[in-house]
Amino acid sequence: MTDSFYEKTPLLPSLLNNKQISPQIYIKYEGLQPGKSFKSRGIGYLINEWYKNAPEKKDGKFAVFSSSGGNAGLAAATACQYMGLKCNVAVPKTTKKRMIRKIEDAGATVVIHGDHWGHADSFLREEWMPSEAQQGINTLYVHPFDNETIWKGHSTIVNEIVQQLKGKKIPLERLRGVVCSVGGGGLFSGIIIGLQRHGLVDKIPVIAVETEGCDVLNKSLINGSPIRLEKLTSVATSLGSPYIASFAFDSARHYNTKSVVLKDDDVLQTCMRFADDTGFIVEPACGASLHFCYHPGILEKALGCELGEEDVIVVIACGGACVTYNDLVSAQQKPVEKFARNPNKST
């Protein structure tokens, strides 16, 4: 068994906007994680901590259970493969065959159940896991994002950013903001915890990015209390959570997080442009954050100030393995209404 469930990812200057004079934007490439997204950090950390603290290991009867058919499921499967643990993933019928194959290739057992994530999750927790437990298996349930231990794992991204900026001789005083995409709030919560650890949470604002149709944080902030979306319509399916984790909502209010909502069309154009510029295929959920690399003026509007040549912004390219280039092309040709889906589906 190994603890290498995630990797330190590069922090590289963005050269995507040749006309850009300011600020200096650095991209954190989380798509290079073993599970192809930042979720390798938190989900891997949760699984590793659970196994390390298990009271009895002699019989080796351990199994991890995830109910996500997207990036969280792949992260769980990949982490278990690294650690030598059995992984079981329940996915809904709507999960792409390509994604199921990736999860299976990572060594997980996949069961397809139900029309949406809620059905798969209920089956996993109420039938599959109890059945395994009756056979003496020590089981762990992995939620896609709403778990404090997962957030702690995600917080390692801030440790790396701080170290990498120091390695580049960039004083932390020049860091004017961190941009991250927000779905259910797992990554955002991890960033907040990481900034708290380094005494930076009151000094460095987080720019939380969503897309129209999956903008549960923005709508909750406007409402003054958390809401639940009845329908999810954005092409950024990895942002498709009907609710925001309570810690994420409370932190966003307390630390004056800057909430930005983008249009699907703009994000898809960014994904295509990023693919052409770098050769990397990214999901719309990731493209939402990368959009700021091409349009730094949105940063100034969100922060309410002008940014100079010495100012630094870090953009978290969260990664993801759910789309192909053809998917992006197809999405640009379809009306948004075709992406409406049950809010119980989660990645």
From TrEMBL:
The keyword Lyase applies. Pfam families: PALP. Its EC number is 4.3.1.17. Keywords: Cytoplasm, Gluconeogenesis, Lyase, Pyridoxal phosphate. Its cofactor is pyridoxal 5'-phosphate. It catalyses: L-serine = pyruvate + NH4(+). GO terms for molecular function: L-serine ammonia-lyase activity; threonine deaminase activity. It is found in: Cytoplasm. Residues 6-319 form the Tryptophan synthase beta chain-like PALP domain. The keyword Cytoplasm applies. Pathway: Carbohydrate biosynthesis; gluconeogenesis. GO terms for cellular component: cytoplasm. One of its GO terms (biological process) is L-serine catabolic process. It is an enzyme of class 4 (lyase). PANTHER family: CATABOLIC L-SERINE_THREONINE DEHYDRATASE, THREONINE DEHYDRATASE, MITOCHONDRIAL-RELATED. Belongs to the serine/threonine dehydratase family. This is L-serine ammonia-lyase. It comes from Lachancea quebecensis.
